[in-house]
Amino acid sequence: MMRRVDFEGVVVDVFQPPAEFTRINPLGQVPVWVPGDGGGDGNAAIPDSTLILRELGLDEGLATDRRVRSVLAVGVMEQTVRHFLESRQASPDRDTLAECIDTIAATLTRLEGGGDDGGGVWDLADWDLAIACQYLDLRLPEKVAGWKWRERFPGLARHLSLAMDHPSHGPVFHETAPPA
Protein backbone atom coordinates (compact mmCIF):
# COMPACT_ATOMS: atom_id res chain seq x y z
CA MET A 1 0.00 0.00 0.00
CA MET A 2 1.42 3.37 -0.99
CA ARG A 3 0.61 6.23 1.33
CA ARG A 4 1.66 9.84 1.23
CA VAL A 5 3.21 11.17 4.41
CA ASP A 6 4.01 14.87 4.60
CA PHE A 7 7.09 15.64 6.65
CA GLU A 8 9.86 18.15 7.08
CA GLY A 9 13.28 16.53 6.84
CA VAL A 10 16.02 17.87 9.07
CA VAL A 11 19.65 16.82 8.62
CA VAL A 12 21.55 16.45 11.90
CA ASP A 13 25.21 15.64 12.50
CA VAL A 14 24.77 12.73 14.91
CA PHE A 15 28.40 13.04 16.00
CA GLN A 16 27.79 16.64 17.11
CA PRO A 17 24.04 16.86 17.57
CA PRO A 18 22.38 20.10 18.57
CA ALA A 19 20.87 20.26 22.07
CA GLU A 20 17.32 20.22 20.66
CA PHE A 21 18.01 16.88 18.94
CA THR A 22 19.35 15.19 22.08
CA ARG A 23 16.51 16.69 24.13
CA ILE A 24 13.87 14.95 22.04
CA ASN A 25 16.03 11.91 21.18
CA PRO A 26 18.43 11.11 24.06
CA LEU A 27 19.79 7.94 22.40
CA GLY A 28 20.65 9.91 19.27
CA GLN A 29 19.12 7.29 16.97
CA VAL A 30 18.34 8.16 13.38
CA PRO A 31 15.92 8.35 11.86
CA VAL A 32 13.61 9.90 14.41
CA TRP A 33 10.11 11.15 13.71
CA VAL A 34 8.31 13.77 15.75
CA PRO A 35 4.63 13.57 14.78
CA GLY A 36 2.53 16.71 14.76
CA ASP A 37 3.87 19.41 17.05
CA GLY A 38 5.93 16.88 19.02
CA GLY A 39 4.04 17.57 22.20
CA GLY A 40 6.49 20.34 23.04
CA ASP A 41 8.51 18.19 25.44
CA GLY A 42 9.85 15.68 22.93
CA ASN A 43 8.03 12.73 24.49
CA ALA A 44 6.27 12.12 21.19
CA ALA A 45 9.55 11.50 19.32
CA ILE A 46 9.69 8.02 17.75
CA PRO A 47 13.17 6.69 16.97
CA ASP A 48 13.89 3.68 14.72
CA SER A 49 12.60 3.24 11.19
CA THR A 50 10.69 0.07 12.09
CA LEU A 51 8.76 1.84 14.85
CA ILE A 52 8.11 4.82 12.60
CA LEU A 53 6.70 2.60 9.85
CA ARG A 54 4.59 0.72 12.41
CA GLU A 55 3.23 4.02 13.78
CA LEU A 56 2.33 5.11 10.25
CA GLY A 57 0.61 1.77 9.64
CA LEU A 58 2.99 0.86 6.83
CA ASP A 59 4.00 -2.53 8.22
CA GLU A 60 0.49 -3.96 8.39
CA GLY A 61 0.20 -7.55 7.29
CA LEU A 62 3.93 -8.23 7.53
CA ALA A 63 4.41 -11.90 8.41
CA THR A 64 6.62 -12.85 11.37
CA ASP A 65 9.41 -14.23 9.16
CA ARG A 66 9.50 -10.93 7.25
CA ARG A 67 9.60 -8.95 10.52
CA VAL A 68 12.54 -11.13 11.61
CA ARG A 69 14.36 -10.34 8.34
CA SER A 70 13.73 -6.66 8.93
CA VAL A 71 15.10 -6.82 12.48
CA LEU A 72 18.16 -8.78 11.31
CA ALA A 73 18.85 -6.24 8.56
CA VAL A 74 18.62 -3.40 11.08
CA GLY A 75 20.93 -5.40 13.36
CA VAL A 76 23.52 -5.56 10.55
CA MET A 77 23.42 -1.77 10.37
CA GLU A 78 23.74 -1.47 14.16
CA GLN A 79 26.78 -3.77 14.22
CA THR A 80 28.27 -1.85 11.31
CA VAL A 81 27.84 1.40 13.24
CA ARG A 82 29.38 -0.25 16.32
CA HIS A 83 32.38 -1.35 14.24
CA PHE A 84 32.73 2.08 12.65
CA LEU A 85 32.63 3.92 15.98
CA GLU A 86 35.07 1.51 17.62
CA SER A 87 37.47 1.84 14.67
CA ARG A 88 37.54 5.62 15.23
CA GLN A 89 38.79 5.26 18.79
CA ALA A 90 42.39 6.26 19.54
CA SER A 91 43.10 2.61 20.46
CA PRO A 92 40.39 0.45 18.88
CA ASP A 93 39.72 -2.83 20.68
CA ARG A 94 40.58 -5.59 18.20
CA ASP A 95 38.31 -8.09 19.94
CA THR A 96 35.32 -5.74 19.61
CA LEU A 97 36.11 -5.13 15.94
CA ALA A 98 36.42 -8.87 15.27
CA GLU A 99 33.19 -9.57 17.17
CA CYS A 100 31.35 -7.02 15.02
CA ILE A 101 32.67 -8.54 11.79
CA ASP A 102 31.80 -12.08 12.95
CA THR A 103 28.29 -11.01 13.98
CA ILE A 104 27.73 -9.22 10.68
CA ALA A 105 28.96 -12.23 8.68
CA ALA A 106 26.78 -14.67 10.66
CA THR A 107 23.72 -12.45 10.19
CA LEU A 108 24.38 -11.98 6.47
CA THR A 109 24.68 -15.77 6.16
CA ARG A 110 21.21 -16.10 7.66
CA LEU A 111 19.84 -13.35 5.41
CA GLU A 112 21.36 -14.74 2.20
CA GLY A 113 18.43 -15.83 0.05
CA GLY A 114 14.82 -15.22 0.88
CA GLY A 115 14.72 -11.66 -0.45
CA ASP A 116 12.50 -10.39 -3.25
CA ASP A 117 13.10 -12.08 -6.58
CA GLY A 118 12.24 -8.96 -8.50
CA GLY A 119 8.70 -9.99 -9.31
CA GLY A 120 6.87 -9.15 -6.10
CA VAL A 121 5.85 -6.11 -4.16
CA TRP A 122 8.64 -5.03 -1.85
CA ASP A 123 7.92 -4.84 1.85
CA LEU A 124 9.66 -3.39 4.89
CA ALA A 125 12.02 -6.37 5.13
CA ASP A 126 13.14 -5.99 1.51
CA TRP A 127 13.89 -2.28 1.92
CA ASP A 128 15.64 -2.72 5.28
CA LEU A 129 17.84 -5.40 3.76
CA ALA A 130 18.71 -3.26 0.73
CA ILE A 131 19.57 -0.32 2.98
CA ALA A 132 21.75 -2.56 5.17
CA CYS A 133 23.62 -3.81 2.09
CA GLN A 134 24.23 -0.29 0.85
CA TYR A 135 25.39 0.70 4.33
CA LEU A 136 27.95 -2.12 4.22
CA ASP A 137 29.37 -0.52 1.07
CA LEU A 138 29.73 2.77 2.94
CA ARG A 139 31.12 1.64 6.30
CA LEU A 140 32.70 -1.78 5.73
CA PRO A 141 34.62 -1.72 2.50
CA GLU A 142 36.78 -4.74 1.73
CA LYS A 143 39.88 -3.13 3.24
CA VAL A 144 38.13 -3.00 6.63
CA ALA A 145 36.20 -6.27 6.68
CA GLY A 146 38.83 -8.43 5.02
CA TRP A 147 36.29 -9.88 2.61
CA LYS A 148 34.08 -8.68 -0.20
CA TRP A 149 30.51 -9.00 1.02
CA ARG A 150 29.16 -8.96 -2.56
CA GLU A 151 31.23 -12.01 -3.49
CA ARG A 152 30.58 -13.84 -0.24
CA PHE A 153 26.83 -13.15 -0.35
CA PRO A 154 25.77 -12.97 -4.03
CA GLY A 155 22.07 -13.20 -3.18
CA LEU A 156 22.34 -10.06 -1.07
CA ALA A 157 24.33 -8.30 -3.81
CA ARG A 158 21.56 -9.18 -6.26
CA HIS A 159 18.99 -7.88 -3.79
CA LEU A 160 20.77 -4.51 -3.60
CA SER A 161 21.00 -4.42 -7.39
CA LEU A 162 17.24 -4.98 -7.62
CA ALA A 163 16.67 -2.15 -5.14
CA MET A 164 18.83 0.19 -7.20
CA ASP A 165 16.79 -0.67 -10.29
CA HIS A 166 13.42 -0.45 -8.51
CA PRO A 167 11.16 2.12 -10.18
CA SER A 168 9.98 3.80 -6.97
CA HIS A 169 13.11 3.95 -4.81
CA GLY A 170 15.97 3.16 -7.18
CA PRO A 171 16.85 6.80 -7.84
CA VAL A 172 17.27 7.40 -4.10
CA PHE A 173 19.60 4.42 -3.81
CA HIS A 174 21.72 5.82 -6.64
CA GLU A 175 21.80 9.30 -5.08
CA THR A 176 22.89 7.95 -1.70
CA ALA A 177 25.32 5.27 -2.91
CA PRO A 178 28.82 5.61 -1.49
CA PRO A 179 31.57 6.56 -3.94
CA ALA A 180 33.11 3.61 -5.75
Describe the structure.
Strands 1-2 form a two-stranded antiparallel ribbon. It is built from nine helices and two strands; from the N terminus they run αββαααααααα. It has helices at residues 19-24, 49-55, 64-87, 94-111, 124-139, 142-145, 149-152, 154-165, 170-176; strands spanning 32-33, 46-47. The longest helix has 24 residues, at 64-87. It has two domains: 1-60, no CATH class; 64-176, Glutathione S-transferase Yfyf (Class Pi), Chain A, domain 2, CATH 1.20.1050. Helix 3 (64-87) runs parallel beside helix 5 and helix 8 packs across helix 9 (170-176). It has 180 residues and is mostly helical.
CATH architecture of the largest domain: Up-down Bundle
Helix content: 40-55%
CATH classification, class level of the largest domain: Mainly Alpha
User: Which word captures the global form?
Assistant: globular
What structural class should be given to the helix and strand makeup? Answer: mainly alpha
Which fold name corresponds to the CATH topology of the largest domain? Glutathione S-transferase Yfyf (Class Pi), Chain A, domain 2
**Total domain modules:** 2
What is the strand content?
under 5%
Q: What are the secondary-structure elements, in order, as H or E? A: HEEHHHHHHHH
Record field, number of beta strands? 2
Question: What is the distance, rounded to the nearest whole angstrom, between the alpha carbons of the first and last residues?
Answer: 34 Å
Query: Strand arrangement, largest sheet?
Result: 1-2
Main pleated-sheet profile? 2 strands, antiparallel
DSSP summary: helix tally:
9
- Rg value: 17 Å
Mean pLDDT: 82
Residue ranges: pLDDT <50 for 5 or more in a row?
A: none
